[in-house]
């Protein structure tokens, strides 16, 4: 760590010392994928709790709307699959907020594709955005949150232990995110920084129902969650600087049951020989 990075770390430690316990007032929080869905709702929730938020995302009009509703929060266009864009974006937000206490690596893409018949581009995009994008975000934000109140939250999958057809690219990339979070937790422990992994179910939309080939009643409902529930879980994780966050909370308990339901289904599910 260079002198400038060390200075940022010390400044962050002094500033974030103002925040403690359940109070988010004064916490400086960077959120990727902040233009819509969980990212935008989380930004508004944390702002309402007194935090200062900085936003990175791909949709300028939506980002500007979210920023306006969050006290004209700083924002910047950023494709998390691009290392240079992430580095510039994180440093810009850190400059505007006067430092970063929390980074939420929320940006991600869906990737429903079969291994044998699917488009390799689906797998590549899942790795580039979900896995490498999280890696770039953590790498760029690391020195900013290297203080005793620093915290990183990365978004994995509540279905990591469930092997479902047509979800290989998504599950593989999210499993990689979990591994990154677990490794970073150990690497930053001596600094007082904490790292959490959010195990999130499929957001409850019509697209989710279709992706389960009509099995919503037996599987999807056990692992889907609403945006509001996910935001609640993320908020709990940030406030408590938790190492594990589940949305829905029951997702950890149902993973075994869900996998058994899949395993017992006929082998002639659509698209599988």
User: How would you sum up the global shape?
Assistant: globular
Head-to-tail CA distance between termini: 53 Å
Counted beta strands? 9
Q: Which parts are unreliable, with pLDDT below 50 for 5 consecutive residues or more? A: 8-21, 205-222, 267-273
Order of helices and strands: HEHEHEHEHEHEEHHEHEH
Largest sheet: 7 strands, parallel
How many H/I helices?
10
Mean pLDDT: 82
- Classify the secondary structure makeup into a structural class: alpha/beta
Strand residues, percent: 5-15%
Strand order of the largest sheet: 3-2-1-4-5-6-9
Helix share of residues?
40-55%
Gyration radius from CA atoms, angstroms = 19 Å
What does the model show?
The protein contains ten helices and nine strands. With 273 residues, the chain is of the alpha/beta class. Helix 6 links the parallel strand 5 and strand 6. The longest helix is centred in the middle third of the chain and has 22 residues, at 120-141. 45% of the residues are buried.
Topology (elements, then pairings):
Blueprint: H1 3-16, E1 28-32, H2 37-48, E2 52-57, H3 60-69, E3 75-77, H4 83-97, E4 102-105, H5 120-141, E5 151-157, H6 168-188, E6 194-200, E7 202-203, H7 206-211, H8 216-223, E8 224-225, H9 227-240, E9 244-247, H10 251-263
Parallel strand pairs: 1-2, 1-4, 2-3, 4-5, 5-6, 6-9, 7-8
Helix pairs in contact: 2-9, 4-5, 5-6, 8-10
């Amino acid at each position: 760590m260079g002198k400038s990075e060390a200075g940022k770390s010390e400044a962050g430690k002094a500033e974030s010392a103002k925040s403690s316990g359940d109070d988010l007032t004064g916490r400086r929080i960077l959120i990727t994928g902040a233009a819509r869905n969980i990212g935008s709702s989380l930004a508004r929730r944390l702002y309402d709790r007194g935090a200062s938020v900085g936003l990175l995302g791909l949709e300028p009009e939506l980002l500007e709307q979210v920023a306006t509703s969050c006290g004209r929060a700083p924002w910047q266009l950023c494709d998390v699959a691009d290392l240079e864009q992430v580095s510039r974006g994180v440093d810009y937000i850190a400059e505007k907020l006067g430092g970063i206490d929390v980074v939420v690596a929320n940006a991600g893409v869906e990737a429903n594709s079969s291994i044998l018949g699917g488009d390799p581009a689906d797998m590549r995009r899942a790795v580039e955005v979900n896995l490498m994008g999280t890696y770039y975000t953590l790498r760029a934000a690391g020195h900013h949150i290297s203080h005793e109140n620093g915290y990183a939250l990365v978004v994995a999958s509540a279905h990591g232990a469930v092997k479902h057809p047509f979800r290989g690219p998504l599950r593989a990339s999210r499993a990689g995110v979990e591994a990154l979070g677990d490794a970073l937790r150990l690497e930053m422990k001596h600094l007082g920084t904490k790292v959490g992994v959010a195990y999130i179910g499929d957001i409850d939309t019509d697209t989710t129902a279709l992706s389960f080939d009509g099995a919503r009643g037996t599987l999807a409902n056990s692992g889907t969650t609403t945006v509001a529930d996910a935001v609640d879980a993320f908020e709990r994780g940030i406030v408590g600087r938790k190492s594990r966050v589940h949305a829905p909370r029951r997702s950890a308990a149902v993973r075994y049951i869900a996998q058994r339901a899949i395993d017992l289904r006929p082998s002639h599910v659509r698209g599988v020989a």
